Amino acid sequence: PKNNNPIIIDAGANIGDTTLFIYQKLKLTKPKIYALEPNSDSYTYLLKNLKLNKTKGIIPHKLALTDKNGKERLNFNSNNFDGAFVSGMMKGEKTNSEIIDTTTFISFCKKNKIKHIDLLKMDIEGSEYSVFRTSKQFIKDYVKTIFVELHNINDHDNYRSFKRDVSKIGFTIEADIMNRTLFLRNKNYS
After folding, report:
1. What is the CA 134 to chain-centroid distance, rounded?
2. What is the DSSP secondary-structure string of 26-52?
C-alpha cells in the first residue's frame, strides 16, 4: 500500500518475518498490522521478534483464521514439518497437535473495528479456502489487495478453483508465483 495509515492483516504470521518486512517497508506511512499466529511456539518467537525490532503499530493475536469462531486442533505433521493444519486437513497422517483459538475473518474485523484492509496476507496452510468461502462478499467489499499462498487439498480446494472463484468477485491476478502464490488486486475497491 502507498497510502498513509494502511491496514494490513498478516494471517499465518509465523515468527513475524513477513510482518516485520512489511513494517520496515511501510513504517513511514504508519501502518497498522494485525499479525495472527495460532502456533504457541511460533507466537512466542513472533512476540520476541516484535520486541527486538521495537515496532509500533503491529498488533499480535494468538489466533487462526478459519470458517468458525471457537477452538480447533492445530495439527503438526510429525513426518515432515511444513506448517500446521487445522483439524481434518491432514486425514490419515500421524500428527502432534495443540488446541487453538479460531475466528472467522468477518468476526475478527468486526471485533477490531476494521472497516477496510489495504493488504490481506494469508499463509494459513489450507484454511484459505474456507476463509474465502465464508467471507467472499466481505472480502469483495473491504479488501483492496490479497497476497495468498495456496495449497492443493482436493478437487474442490485447489489452486485452479481459487483463481476462478476470486476472479468472479472482481480480483485481478497481478502476480502468479510458481503456481502456488498469488498477488491479487480488487478492481471494485474504491
Report:
1. 14
2. HGGG--EEEEE---HHHHHHHHHHHHH
